[in-house]
Design goal:
CATH class: Mainly Alpha
Protein name: Helix-turn-helix transcriptional regulator
GO molecular function, one term: DNA-binding transcription factor activity
Organism: Nonomuraea zeae
Number of domains: 1
Number of helices: 5
Order of helices and strands: HHHHH
Number of strands: 0
Pfam families: TetR_N
Strand content: under 5%
Largest sheet: none
InterPro entries: Homeodomain-like_sf, HTH-type_TetR-like_transc_reg, HTH_TetR
């Protein structure tokens, strides 16, 4: 993916996370595009369906949670079992 396309993708996902948190999963995709300052065509090029955008938002959050679990697991005795729990879920 080109660098500008990747920036758009990441920015749309970050914006969608905020819009969905405020308005729920049925929030207007045109509102997501408007707030991300991209055209609707750009949004739909990356995410052809609402479900695709929701999956990307959830995946980004899960990836961040897994990265945090990895950090906690790397600390000696500092994860309180979180590393094992997340490892069972496929994060580690």
């Amino acid at each position: 993916m080109r660098a500008d396309a990747r920036r758009n993708y990441d920015h749309i996902v970050a914006t969608a996370r905020v819009v969905f948190a405020e308005d729920g999963p049925e929030a207007s995709l045109n509102e997501v595009a408007r707030r991300a300052q991209v055209g609707p065509g750009t949004l739909y090029r990356h995410f052809p369906t609402r479900q695709a955008l929701l999956v990307a938002v959830f995946r980004e959050r899960i990836d961040r949670l897994c990265a945090l679990a990895d950090e906690l697991a790397a600390e000696p005795g500092g994860d309180g079992g979180a590393g094992e729990a997340m490892g069972a879920g496929g994060c580690l």
